[in-house]
Design a protein that fits this description.
This protein is mainly alpha-helical and 187 residues long.
Length: 187
Amino acid sequence: MDRFGRKRMFGISTFIYICLGNCISWLPGLEHILIFRFIMGFFHPAVIDAGFTLVLEVFEPKYRSAASILIFVPWSFGMMTLTGFAYLLMDWRLVLFACALPSLLFIPAIWSLDESPRWLIVRGHHNRALQVLQKAARWNKTSLSPEHQLRAIMDNILEESTNCKPVTRKGLLPRLKHILHQYTILF
């Protein structure tokens, strides 16, 4: 996600997830459904992580907890109403299709999203980050600090990010220990 950008990863993953989710109810057999669900499961973390990061990076730190909770409120309400919805439709294919169909409305929103200003700054794209910040200021009907102050802040963020690079492990044994540790955490 950090290499390609949050917006690009979110867009690609979400588009694939939506397409597969809308096709899954029309597949002929269980093996096809399981393959599609496996692929969807592969893209699900990218959708959640990239979207979550995109949202949280535009909030001030004091509002991030509330924003991180509010992001998942619609999903929670959807899950609570799913049983009643399934009871009304009485066919698992219709339920799957009816649940996936509204996601098509989300596709145009993917292209209207802007890249994370923080990611742009860390990657050294200060002009693009400034454009995104100016667009956000226009939407919010507020004004930004003068450009020279914003560029100084961007330089500080870039300097902090270069000082926090992960330590590379040299040698085969330290790398294997790191990989084993990561898989241990996974399980």
